[in-house]
Amino acid sequence: MSRDRLFRTEAIVLRRHDFGEADRLLTLLTPNHGKIRAIAKGARKPQSRKTGHVELFMRTRMLFARGRTLDIVTQAELVEAYRPLREDLVRVTYASHLVELLDRFTVENDAHPELYHLLADALGWLAETPDLLLTARFVELRLLGLVGFQPRLFQCAHCQEIIEARDQFFSADLGGVLCPDCQRADPRAEPISLAALKVLRFLQTHPYATVVRLKVRRALHTELETLMFGYLQHLLERRLQSADFLRRLRQEAGVTGR
Description:
This protein has two domains: about 5-80, CATH 2.40.50.140; about 85-255, de novo design (two linked rop proteins) (Up-down Bundle), CATH 1.20.1440.120. It has eight helices and eight strands. It has helices at about 85, 90-105, 115-130, 130-145, 195-205, 210, 220-235, 240-255, and strands at about 5-20, 25-30, 35-40, 60-65, 70-80, 170, 175-180, 190. The strands form two sheets. A five-stranded mixed β-barrel has the order 1-2-3-5-4. The longest helix is centred in the C-terminal third of the chain and has 19 residues, at about 220-235. The termini are far apart.
């Protein structure tokens, strides 16, 4: 095989589907080739060397052969399995949520190394964090910043005046906080408490190593999640399947602190 048809890269498995009798169709995020689709031939055969290296959320070093319509995975070497995600249904659902967001905000073959490294970090954080809700909000805000939809939290999204330290309103349409005087600019704007605004600002401006030390009350977590899910669904113009499943899962399992 001609060398110019081969390329090697790390990749994280975003989605996978059975293909044919023994193959897998993979949607992958890579640092330098962006989001790509590829066929892992024979990956469903127990004796295949690819088996166990191309599961969801795994970070793998792969060798590809370029195809006419789909690239072909010829080799796969595991880099990081993020094993705790596979052992905890709540953790894996949070991972599914973040992967769904990243998938919806990206197009194929558009390289964005920062997004790849954010996802790799996020999967590691989700595998270990005691506060999945806080970690999810941090990654959502970082993702929005990287794809050009960072919410405006320090100045009014309508009049541009500095936001004062009091309860305000959040406009998904205008992409940020509205001061009380500008609430009429978006009749659908939702109230946002001063405490929630402070947490969002902190998450937006501090590294994860600092953010992870925050302690957030459950009621405040609920407000933050409702606000962020509303904003994300407004941007994507569709409901988030993983977010709906996550709510049901927590209700059914009685999980109130995660």
